[in-house]
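> tool_call: predict_assembly(chains=two)
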Amino acid sequence: MKQWIRQVLATALLAVALGAMAGISWPGMASAGEESTQVAAVPAPAIPEAKPGTECVRDPEFMRRNHMDMLKHKRDLTVHEGNRLPEFSLNECIACHAVKGDDGKNVTIADSRHFCRSCHDYAAVEVDCFQCHASRPEAGDTALQSSPHGMNVLALSEFLKGVQE
Amino acid sequence: MSCTDNKTCTCTPAGSLPADGEASPGIEAGRRAFIKAGGAFATIALTPTVTLMAFGGGKANAAQESLDPKARWGLLIDVAKCGTGCSECVSACQKENGWQDTGHPETDAQWIRKVTVKNPKSGAVAELPVMCQHCDEPPCADVCPTGASFKRADGIVLVDKHLCIGCRYCMMACPYKARSFIHETLIDQKPYAPRGKGTVESCTMCVHRVDRGEIPACVESCNSTGGGAMMFGNLNDPQSDIAKRVAELTSTQLRPDLGVDPGVHYTYL
């Protein structure tokens, strides 16, 4: 088969497959996300916005895929080695991704609008983190101290090496 | 924990204890017995008090990237200055770490408690705070089947609650009855002190504060509103206030005969 025919076929197949799996197509992915959501006509998870004027500790794209590994690695670093750098700290995520409820207070994990539940409910993921961890910042909490991309390249590659272990 | 030799146990009646939530008179009896068995009690209040400086020696690592593996964090408690009925350390710990008495003394968490000891011969009474003793050879870590109980390189003994399965072997192994088990679902924990049902916990020497260069909450409150009886610092640093004090005073550890080498030292006990 000629190279270009193969490519056309593959693309067509992919399109069909995507259509079939519309229910679980991943919304918000890159910029094409919104289109595919419209095509799918299935409600996408409403992901609450983070604190205005901030940036995530990594690309949102990267975070969507890797937040669980980053959190689990950071968890071990903190508890066993005393690493208190704000980056990837769960408290930081909670502080910057806090969602205000109707009463003007930040919602807890008991509320389905909580940032960490927005996708998890949708994807049937259940984490036990908030049996122990506070799911909203304390009133007057100053936890938020991240500067976006604060970790230099070397530190990040070390970090990722740790994740792979 | 049990009294190894019941005949030598002489304990104050439970009624004379400060009302800060003792587990039970039976436990209390055993605990006092082991403190007495330490043999150091006779020195109590025979010498004038030595002033422990506030914020003594707490030069913790503020870099935040990792702990200082050469440190051995410890406490020095001047029993002569520990006020009768004062429980500032206990309330400061509760506030910092978010545990409290809920009226169920059998099951309530207790990270730090005030214990009253009495010398049966002289009748002298003393009060002292007892918390996780941060042993150099922690029996809790020895018996833990999952590696959740461990000693950090800087001497702080912790439960990695992510690994804890709630078996409570460590609670049985601890000669100081320093650990608690969480029996109930909790909400609104402190962000820096996650706690949850089904896991064991104990004094963390306020590891979250130590890591950012601060001193434990109990020491801070004892020095500001309490008797100024507690000192925190690096026992391995000969220049630190705590190491100097430990070198110049006769201090003791609770039950030194067990050979677990606690990081908490007591003077005038």
